[in-house]
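hey so i finally got around to running the thing on that chain from the lab meeting. sorry it took forever, my laptop kept dying and i had to restart like 3 times. anyway pasting the input first so we r on the same page abt which one it is
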Amino acid sequence: MYAIFIRSEALTDMKEARDWYDSQSIGLGDRFYEALTLAFARIAETPYIFPTVQGDIHRALIRRYPYALFFEIDGQNIYILACAHTRRDPRHRPH
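ok and heres what got predicted. didnt touch it at all, straight out
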């Protein structure tokens, strides 16, 4: 199993998304975090199953939500770079 490290920018992305979902419906933000937790587990187990989107950056889609986690693999470590809305301008994704 790989160790996961999350950049502060990615944490901010996740918190902002959670807050937005909670503003739409109480508890929806918690369900979003649960989906993120499942995605982290999948990434930690088998990171190479996720496609690369640019260079060595991989993308994992979040089930039931229009978000993706972008990450890099370095040895036994996974670095989460961003959590981005998949329908937004791709320039907002990590480079």
